[in-house]
Every structure is written in C-alpha cells, then in structure tokens.
User: Fold this.
Amino acid sequence: GYRSLAEGTKVSYDEEEGPKGPKAVNVQKL
Assistant:
C-alpha cells in the first residue's frame, strides 16, 4: 500500500475498482 509515504504527505489520487476492492491510481504528491 502507500504506508511508505511520510505521515502528513499530501497526495491526490483516483480510486479504481480492482479485483480485490478499490485501489489508488494516478497518485501524485501535492
């Protein structure tokens, strides 16, 4: 997942339905 992001990091992303549930795509740091 995205746990490697530093806490407090602001990101924007789109959610996409995957076979195991929603996943984040197009992740960008703001």
User: Anything to note?
Assistant: DSSP finds no helices and two strands in the chain. The mean pLDDT is 81. The longest strand covers residues 21-29. The chain has one domain: 1-30.
